[in-house]
Amino acid sequence: MQLNKAAYFNGDKFIFRLGRREKDIRLDPAKYANIPLKNMITRQKEAVRETQLITWKKDLAVDWRLVVGLGGASVYDTSLTLHHIYGVPYLPASAVKGVTRNMVIAEHFNNIEGNKSSGALGDPVFCLIFGSLENSILGARQGLVRFFDAFPVSAPILCLDVMNPHYGPYYSYKNNKTPPADYHNPIPVTFLTVEEISFTICAGIKPEDNVPVDNGMFTGKTLIEIAAEWIEKALKEHGIGAKTAVGYGYFNG
User: Which residues on adjacent β-strands are paired with residue 132?
Assistant: First the structure.
């Protein structure tokens, strides 16, 4: 709610207001320090422990900046995924699972999702970890590995960033025959990012499902061990969120 009020309309564009001013609604990143993030992570750990899952957890730090949910619905036309209760930036479990799954398909199966006879869906380990559709080698089934939301370890630092798209008229009009050149004015688009932050990444599996693989490149490793390797590789080498092509969303640790 506050994020959507932390800007004013000037002419034909929104302008963010960072910091505080008397009698003015402004986005105050410093207030994140008042949110009990450690308590939130502790509650998540306790909830996971009560499920009696075998879990893997690791804190990974953002290399530079991160923006997840840039294309979400927003009054600014750009967005940032915030927790619906605490208002902090976080990595949804679906995003962590999705980027890991895409990385595996790209790296191990030549970008081919495939079917029961070829590609990722033709591999039993892939289907066991992520789940699969009816046309897979194991048929329709739920993935055995559970991915959890990743919360920040410390108070997030919000940073205002800018995209500067050129040649808007050339791309906006279907019948525009004017070639793109320097006579087109750039149109700055502001958006929020997160920087200098670490997240607790977590995944789990039922003990009875965590069987060792008996063939292929992962022979001898359990499903949670394989999933952990894939998650780390995806976040460190492929990145998560928007604008990974220009360095956003990569992790280390």
Answer: 141
